[in-house]
Design a protein that fits this description.
Blueprint (H helix, E strand, L loop, with lengths): L3 E7 L3 H12 L4 E4 L7 H5 L8 E2 L4 H6 L9 H6 L2 H11 L4 E4 L3 E4 L4 H9 L6 E2 L4 E7 L2 E7 L2 E10 L14 H8 L4 E7 L3 E3 L11 E11 L2 E12 L3 E3 L1 H14 L5 E5 L6 H14 L18 H8 L12 H12 L1 E8 L7 E6 L17 E3 L13 H15 L4
Parallel strand pairs: 1-2, 1-9, 2-6, 9-18
Antiparallel strand pairs: 3-5, 4-5, 7-8, 8-9, 10-17, 11-14, 11-16, 12-13, 12-15, 13-14, 15-16
The chain binds flavin-adenine dinucleotide (FAD).
Amino acid sequence: MQKIYDTIIIGGGAAGLISAVECKRLGQDILVIERNPRAGKKIVLTGKGRCNVTTNNHDLDDLISKYQRNGKFLYGAFSRFTVADTLTYFQDTLHVPLKIERGNRVFPESNNAVDIIYALTKEIEDNILPNTSVLNFKTEGNKITSVVTYKGEFQAKRFILATGGKSYPITGSNGDGYTLAQSLGHTISEPKPALVPIICKERWVKKLAGLSLLHVQITAEQNNKKIVSKFGEALFTHEGMSGPIIIDMSRQVGDALEKGEVKLSIDFKPALTKEVLDKRVISDFQIYKEKVFKNSLRKLLPSSLIPIVVDLSEIDPEKKVAEITREERLRLVNLLKDFKLTVLKLDGWDKAIVTAGGVNIKEIDPTTMKSKLIDNLYFAGEIIDVNGPTGGYNLQICWSTGILAARSKNG
Ligand SMILES: Cc1cc2nc3c(=O)[nH]c(=O)nc-3n(C[C@H](O)[C@H](O)[C@H](O)COP(=O)(O)OP(=O)(O)OC[C@H]3O[C@@H](n4cnc5c(N)ncnc54)[C@H](O)[C@@H]3O)c2cc1C
């Protein structure tokens, strides 16, 4: 007779792995089915290889408010397995020392995402079936009896679907979990790439590719009205802009783009008013009065930005600084406070940090993660229609929903 597992977990990402660890700790006989040769492929990429495990935000209401869409659905999971529980679980149960950095971001003390994967897999290594994709389910009435793979069928009393979304498909999450859920009658809110870089029309941005801007204010505007404005770190890419503040505003930019043109306005000197910046420019021009304009901005701007600013200022680059008019100088000041780029589109699935959309939350019990349609099916992680900003918020979804799914019982 074929073995019947207590729980089969489909997908060995963050959500599936923590579910599996917890199920095993609860004494369950488990199997994790993972299509990749190794589990946790996406975790390696998180936090630029350092894994921003969670956010050190312990105020439940404030935490929930960060998840603009469907945040309230997460009350059930976040109140049952809190941020504090997450920190304790990683530090005391899985023995990964953590540290808190700027912006409440929590990282492993080692700065190495691989330590998180090791901690999540060491107890369940023998329970993972790699190189195996779940193709479909077999059901009887309202229950799944087995999953079908090319390596055969596997039976269990209950199933946790943790196949992720559609973002970064190279890591294994190609969205086929949605098809699996649909085959069981679940509906899917249209998946869209979220937390993505922005592609701009101006072709000269590629000359700035790699230039990182540390303390800038970027405002997205439509018809000269502010849509969203963020202060912090951004980055020029070959096609446009990326970095934390761009990625965090990408959802609002994407929504606005459906209605019309969107511009990005970069304030390179947000700490200075126009008047103070003008005084600063006057003082620099005094220092460089014998030079030509193109050689007068090195105290003010990174070198790769200077030729672009010189060009856009429409001041003759060869003009002697002493001969620059007040009008020209004010034009330069305005440019530094309101440097415009035109948004062409958002980048796609290959660069999206997460998926917006997924399994309809109305069909999942928020207190157990159990399907309301199938008696022995649970969901965990990015496959659910919830997503948060950067800063550890998306992995926290995986930890809380994953643990909750593990601890919930059929019935
Ligand atoms: C570059 C990058 C950096 C990020 N950095 C952070 C960060 O620092 N902090 C943060 O909070 N979030 C971060 N995120 C988001 C976070 O990584 C994800 O939200 C999270 O990893 C999703 O976990 P998951 O387990 O739900 O899905 P996934 O990690 O996508 O795992 C799903 C797993 O299921 C497997 N699978 C899929 N279909 C099948 C099938 N049919 N059969 C068998 N197996 C299947 C896949 O191979 C995959 O291993 C980042 C994302 C990216 C792309």
